[in-house]
Amino acid sequence: MSERTAIEVQPETVAAAHGVASDTAFGAVAPPLYLSTTYEFADFDTPRAYDYGRVGNPTRDLLADAISTLEGGAGAVMTPSGMAAVDLLVGRLAAGSLVLAPHDCYGGTMRLLKARAALGQLSLRLVDQSDIGAVKASLLDRPALMLVETPSNPLMRVVDIATLAGLARAAGARVAVDNTFLSPALQKPLSLGADYVLHSTTKFLNGHSDVIAGAVIAADAEEARGLKHWANVTGATAAPFDSWLTLRGLRTLFARMAAQERNAMAIAERLCAHPAVSRVHYPGLADHPDHALAARQQRGFGAMMSFELVGGVPAVRRFVKGVRCFTFAESLGGVESLVAHPATMTHVDMGAEARGRAGIGDGLLRLSVGLEHADDLLAGLEAGLSGC
Ligand SMILES: *Cc1c(COP(=O)(O)O)cnc(C)c1O
């Protein structure tokens, strides 16, 4: 298998088969799970490829290789959560470095950046990255790192990665793109000029809502080594069992994304036509403000969307009571469909004022569309909407 994997193959093949039939002990087809924390030295002064599980683990490394290959990176580090992935990047910055982040970034990322800023470890500037003038102005202050999230959560706004990366590079800043919402099946930020990709692998990469984990992928080999070193220094390396489960989930990434996107499109179109719905935010719709950019920058529109109910909070309550097939829960990216209410769940920490500024209304619901039959999903939504 080692000679076979050396041949360059399509990404679908990497996801389905990276590391398959590579076991030298028994010829296992599915890569084994190595739980051992420590490894026997071959001789005095002669360690083998692995010595201690925090530093390196064969199961985790196989997953890191697969994800790095899918993103077109030089190497990846698997972290115990998506937040640990963000912190791995941020924690390596020199004290007082300026970090630029989207004004509507993931709530946990916002909380982390604000907490580190409050401790004086970095300074933070929040910018609406669809406003290129504002981005250019903030780059005059020489940030060390610019974080980008596209599409955004929960309004599915899309920003131009290549333009932002070009501007940041010219200003001497590194660019990290959180690719959690689309996965490398649908978007490859490194090919658009980003230096790093971040993932909450908890979401689409694992895809089964049973692992919390994350990843950082670097475009540059030296950076990848630096991140790996830092993950060992801080102990932020993912558990072997989580890595094994995530590799198992990754096998079906492309098939899942394609089928979930088909469902999402059908749902977005149906929601648009519903009298109880005032707006649908899905980049796959021709009238989405960023549709053309999404079509150019992405290989698909993904399985995330949000929509606004005409009836506000009272309608949200009735919808949540009546909806079927969608489970009312946070998180996203699994094979099962979920519905969340950002104002009281994922984005509650943001505060009403900041939510208002970002356009996240109290009548907004977010969907993560799964693999169920489209007819059941549509009927389940109708059951919720008919009471609104
Ligand atoms: C969930 C999520 C994170 C955080 O990941 P965890 O695995 O929950 O720590 C970061 N970014 C985005 C876009 C997410 O959806």
From TrEMBL:
Top-rank taxon of the source lineage equals Bacteria
InterPro entries recorded:
Cys/Met-Metab_PyrdxlP-dep_enz, Cys_met_metab_PP, O_succ_thio_ly, PyrdxlP-dep_Trfase, PyrdxlP-dep_Trfase_major, PyrdxlP-dep_Trfase_small
Classification via Pfam families = Cys_Met_Meta_PP (PF01053)
Q: Which cofactor does it need?
A: pyridoxal 5'-phosphate
Under the heading PROSITE patterns, the entry gives: CYS_MET_METAB_PP (PS00868)
SUPFAM superfamilies from the UniProt entry: PLP-dependent transferases
Chain segments annotated as coiled-coil in the UniProt record? none
Keywords (alphabetical) are:
Pyridoxal phosphate
Q: Which family does it belong to?
A: Belongs to the trans-sulfuration enzymes family.
Can you say what this protein is called?
O-succinylhomoserine (Thiol)-lyase
What lineage is on file?
Bacteria, Pseudomonadati, Pseudomonadota, Alphaproteobacteria, Hyphomicrobiales
